[in-house]
Amino acid sequence: MVIYGVALLSICLLSGVFLGDLLGNILGIDANVGGVGIAMLMLILLAEYLKKKDKLKAPTQEGLSFWSAMYIPIVIAMSAQQNVIAALDGGPLALTAGVAAVLISWAIVPILSKGGNTDETLENEMTGGDQRVRNIR
Amino acid sequence: MLEILGNALTDNGLIVAFTVVGLTMFVSYFLSDKLTKGRIHGSAIAIALGLVLAYIGGMVTGGEKGLSDIGIFAGIGLMGGGMLRDFAIVATAFGANFSEIKKAGVNGVVSLFLGVVLSFIIGVGIALAFGYTDAVSLTTIGAGTATYIVGPVTGTAIGASSEVITLSIAAGLVKSILTMIGTPFVAKYIGLNNPRTAMVYGGLMGTTSGVAGGLAATDPKLVPYGAVTATFYTGLGCLMAPSVLFLMTKAVFG
User: Fold this and answer.
1) Taking CA A20 as the corner, what is the angle to CA A16 and CA A23, rounded to the nearest 5 degrees?
2) Would you list the domain boundaries of chain A?
3) pLDDT tens digits, chain B, 254 residues: what are they?
4) Which of A53, B105, B111, B178 sits 20 to 30 Å CA-CA off A111?
């Protein structure tokens, strides 16, 4: 059933956010430390595990795929509620700092990501990885 | 009649949001196809249009939440808010390959630390150039240059003025928005076409919304890899900026 996929996703997010808050609490900061990242790792591992056991039926996968496909629309809604005026009003200092940070970081990306076999990894990813997790399509 | 329509829209905020975003995407993909022959990805145009709508919303209402401050568009706030955003980000991980994440793990962690420290130093440098000399203001603006969440968290923790905190938020917002818009354009020059680079990218840039939005416009398959590192960035920044980085700034600038 579709709801199984949605519920699986919810369980991952809730556990991740809880663990992230817990981690922040242990470290003594009032922030969620990587909660969403933890949730993503959980979902990847769970999906691969269930897939291997043949327990991840097509409708269940549809529940996951739907929300995955809603990602870009949600990002657009997110951009439509940014405080753009404040960003522009922050004046030259904020603008310079933000732009400089982005430009310099861009320049560093190729140096740090050396060693990857680009063509092969992308090919593998497109097919859904070794486990062919995304075999719904 | 107008009142009935207004009520109908206000009462169904989330549905209005689906409609607005759907129409925005339709227009964007149409423009992408006709005007740029697909060279500029439709989702990049849509995100830019979203920011324009946010600007208009801010102008009209004077609020901080862009379009969602306008009554009938309040649903945009729910659709693009933290809850559904995180839910959808996690969903993109479905189908991502764990062995890729392990392979890029070390690079990802290195990029995280480097990303926080680098942005911080750049922010401090620029703040110095603009005449700030006290360690508290320098640290807060440096932290804001990491992300717009780290800035106010740090500023509040070390007692910065509200003016400086606002500046730090603005710096982070500029970074986030520029990353959102610029990523698809710069992607091919920095080799951003594989999971490993996407993870490094997420760690270096750190702004979850900027990275995820930018990668979505570049190649949606890269989103989970960028997001998995970026989501640790703000936490790491909140951890390092008010502590280690503040002490170092204080040691240098008194």
Assistant:
1) 140
2) 1-81, 83-137
3) 888 998 999 999 999 999 999 999 999 989 988 887 766 677 778 877 888 898 899 899 988 888 989 889 999 999 988 789 888 878 887 866 667 667 767 888 888 899 999 999 999 999 999 988 998 899 999 999 998 878 887 888 788 877 788 788 888 888 888 888 889 888 888 888 888 888 899 999 988 878 888 888 888 888 888 888 887 787 788 778 888 888 898 888 87
4) B178
- Among chain A residues, the shortest Cα distance to B200 is held by A113
User: Could you tell me the pTM of the whole model?
Assistant: 0.72
Return the C-alpha torsion angle A29, B128, A102, A23, nearest 10. -10
Round to whole Å and give the CA distance between B63 and A24.
30
Name the residue range of residue B125's domain.
Answer: 99-253
Find all residues with CB under 8 Å of A41, minimum gap 6, and list them: B93, B98, B101, B228
CB of B142 within 8 A of CB of B124?
Answer: yes
CA distance B165 to chain A (A): 10
Q: Is the ipTM of this complex over 0.85?
A: no
A20 CB neighbours in chain B (<8 A) are 235
Identify the H or E element spanning B30: helix B13-35
CA distance B213 to chain A (A): 6
**Residue A43 to residue A37: CA distance in whole angstroms:** 10
What element of type H or E holds A36? helix A35-52
Q: Which single residue is written with the structure tokens 């500046």?
A: B167
Q: What is the C-alpha separation between A129 and A134, in angstroms, rounded? A: 8
Instruction: Number of helices (H) and strands (E) in chain B: give both, helices first.
Output: 14, 0
Is residue B52 located within the same domain as residue B172?
Answer: no
CB proximity A27 to B under 8 Å = yes
Residue B91 counted as domain residue: no
Looking at chain A, how many residues does it have?
Answer: 137
